TrEMBL record:
GO CC list: cell envelope
GO biological process, one term: metal ion transport
InterPro entries documented for this protein: AdhesinB, Bact_metal-bind_prot9, Lipoprotein_PsaA-like, ZnuA-like
GO MF, one example: metal ion binding
Pfam families: ZnuA
Stated name of the protein: Metal ABC transporter substrate-binding protein
Organism: Rhizobium straminoryzae
Main location: other
Family assignment from sequence similarity: Belongs to the bacterial solute-binding protein 9 family.
């Protein structure tokens, strides 16, 4: 009986909706990058929390009962859209009347270049600084709708954050412009950086188009190795949400270095 009682208390604690701070709008995001953007726009005027943790795989995430309870108490849910969160519609159906906003609305989507999702919109639009400015504006507008009393605060924060993004981007453009055109390559595990490559004039190479595809098949690995050798590409990157093993396999035989997220 004691064991059963302890188990019941544990389950109840896991399912209990966490307590939000009082007297502030409550915002839930689907992943941490949107949460970071929203926190920059919200400042101290709203409370922002991500459903998923840093480094989580977003495409096929399975929301927990605790996630649902947390979001039901929110005033706003922010999602990326473009089919990044394949679980979102079912999740949203459990939230009642909580409004949701797609922060990628208004961007010019790029198509996925290969694999099972060829031709579908590439969901990683935030990788483009220009798109990031659109995200910021969509977040500002959404916060202002649910909390018009702080609209001026959100506007000021959004402007400051947008100015910071622009100031960060300009030196990168200048440094890349100094590179010979043949050296302007970006090689990654997943094709998640197409928007960034487009913005900065980089030629893109990747082992697989999206994480939902097969990751690092022999054919994919060989194609990347051949291209890296032919173009003398010295670096391959692997993000923290995927296995770095395929990229680490490619690096030595391509006479390159692998930088992997952690």
């Amino acid at each position: 009986m004691r064991l059963l009682a302890a188990l019941s208390l544990t389950v109840a604690g896991l399912l209990a909706a966490p307590v939000w701070a009082a007297d502030k709008p409550k915002v839930v995001t689907t992943f941490t990058i949107i949460a970071d953007m929203a926190k920059n726009v919200a400042g101290d005027a709203a409370e922002v929390e991500s459903i998923t943790k840093p480094g989580a795989e977003i495409h096929n995430y399975q929301p927990t009962p605790r996630d649902i309870l947390r979001a039901r108490d929110a005033d706003l849910v922010l999602r990326n859209g473009l089919n990044l969160e394949q679980w979102f519609e079912k999740f949203l159906a459990n939230l009642g009347k909580v409004p949701s906003v797609t922060v990628s609305d208004g961007i010019d989507p790029m198509a996925i270049a290969g694999g099972a999702y060829q031709g579908k919109p590439n969901p990683h639009a935030w990788m483009s600084p220009a798109n990031g400015l659109i995200y910021v504006e969509n977040i500002r507008a959404a916060l202002s709708r649910i909390d018009p009393a702080h609209a001026d605060v959100y506007a000021a924060n959004a402007k400051a954050y947008s100015d910071q993004i622009r100031a960060t981007v300009q030196p990168i453009h200048e440094r890349l412009a100094a590179l010979p055109e043949g050296k302007r390559w970006l090689v990654t595990s997943e094709g998640a950086f197409s928007y960034l490559a487009r913005d900065f004039g980089l030629k893109e190479l990747y082992l697989w188009p999206v994480n939902a595809d097969s990751q690092g098949t022999p054919q994919q690995v060989k194609a990347v190795i051949d291209a890296m050798r032919d173009n003398r590409i010295a670096v391959i990157f692997s993000e923290s949400t995927v296995s770095a093993d395929p990229a680490k396999q490619v690096a030595p035989v391509s006479r390159a270095t692998c930088f992997a997220g952690s």
